[in-house]
Structures are given as structure tokens and as C-alpha cells.
Design a protein that fits this description.
This protein is mainly α. The protein has helices at about 10-20, 30, 40-45, 55-70, 75-85.
Length: about 90
């Protein structure tokens, strides 16, 4: 059964096609695009959220490397030697 024609002659599908907006039902989408482009993109909005995190991460990694390479734990070496003498 074919759909009945409208009494007024108004066809919403033809009206939407003629509008040419192409946003699938959101007539304001074209006006909202500025919020997600340029300086308002997701990356640019969160870029400054953690200032100094990169520098702090590199400094902490450098500290860990320096501690492993330069600082010897004399207490544990002394404890191991003393532990061996007790069991002889």
C-alpha cells in the first residue's frame, strides 16, 4: 500500500533535502563547529592541564638513574658480610 499524499502538499523529506545542511537533524551543528576546531580542539584544550609534568618526569628518571649508578648502598654490603661471618 502506497503512502497517502499530504493534503497540504508539504513533504518533510523534500524540505530536508532542499535545506542541504547534511547534518542529520541538527540545524545548529554548523554553528557549533567552531568549538571543536583551532584553539578549541581537544588537544589544545588539555595541553596546559599539567604544566611541568614533562620536566618533572625527566628529572625523576634522571634521579633514579643517578641513584643506581653513583650511590652504593654500603649498609646492605656491610650487612651481607657480617651475616656470612656469623654462620662460620
Amino acid at each position: 500500500m502506497a503512502p497517502r499524499p499530504s493534503i497540504t502538499g508539504f513533504d518533510p523529506r523534500k524540505f530536508a533535502a532542499a535545506a542541504g545542511n547534511g547534518t542529520r537533524g541538527d540545524p545548529w551543528a554548523r554553528y557549533e563547529q567552531w568549538r571543536y576546531t583551532g584553539p578549541f580542539s581537544r588537544f589544545n584544550r588539555f595541553k596546559g592541564s599539567f604544566p611541568g609534568l614533562g620536566i618533572a618526569t625527566v628529572a625523576f628518571a634522571g634521579y633514579l638513574v643517578a641513584e643506581q649508578m653513583l650511590f652504593k648502598d654500603e649498609h646492605s654490603a656491610h650487612h651481607e658480610g657480617h651475616h656470612e661471618e656469623e654462620h662460620k
